[in-house]
Amino acid sequence: MTDITADQTADHLLGNPARDAEFGDFFALLKPRVMSLVIFTAAVGVLVAPVGVHPLIAFASILFIAIGAGASGALNMWWDADIDRVMKRTRSRPIPAGRITADEARQFGLWLSVIAVGMLGLTANFLAAGLLAFTIFFYVVVYSMWLKRATPQNIVIGGAAGAFPPMIGWAVATGGVSVESLLLFGLIFIWTPPHFWSLALFMNDDYANAGVPMLTVTHGKRATRRQIMFYTLLLAPLAVLISFTAVGGPVYFILSLALNALFLRGAWRLLRRNEAEAEADRYAAERGFFRLSLLYLFLHFAGLLLEAGLRAASIDWASWPQWV
To answer: What number does CATH give the domain 11-177?
Structure first.
């Protein structure tokens, strides 16, 4: 058996790699699951905009937006390495697992940020690049460094970082901001609290052990269930309202009604549960609501994409509100 020295143990706890980092380790720093959502919502922002974009410019822009999102993830992992070591959900990440040092992650994230913002400005326009730069700053500094460990409203305010990608995509296409892009921002912004708080309901011990003041930790799970219901009630009319803008239409309207009915039903089920019931079934309803929240957001943006496809095919739904 190989002996493990005290120095090697310290290196592991400090995030110093016991071997050379591999490509997969650096890729994991980018938070690829989060990046996939960023890519999709940013692409929808580009494709539903009323101004056409050359495919090469659109592809390059989405790529640089994705790189910017990955840079945010790397910088977040650098800053949160200490609590990532405590939480079961995150202890296998590259830094706490000892595959990459915190310094390497920080340098990697900073360089990717510079590249992503600079190249997006040269490829698309500097409004889109400015929005991307602000998104990275907001996620790393405002959310990760300040809000996450300071207030139970961390995910409410910090959720803005995840809501910017469709706005950035819209800015790539149009060079500006509009009511439609603000509503797309609002859809993700209001969706974020019920999405993350449903996760916190069944991962509460992780947040408590790490000292993160998630709402479930500071105010309890009952209060969190009420807040999930509250934000779901705010979310439903906002989501449906998008139907009546230039990017909406009857297909999106019907889809949104169905999705919001399911989401409201799920939030109501969570509100009525007590902790004995939740623990007895290992938080099955909470886990189900969390998965539903992912499907909810994906299908709303997919509906907008479908509406854009119908418009491109010259199907005129201009009078649809009159017969709904």
So the answer is: 1.10.357.140
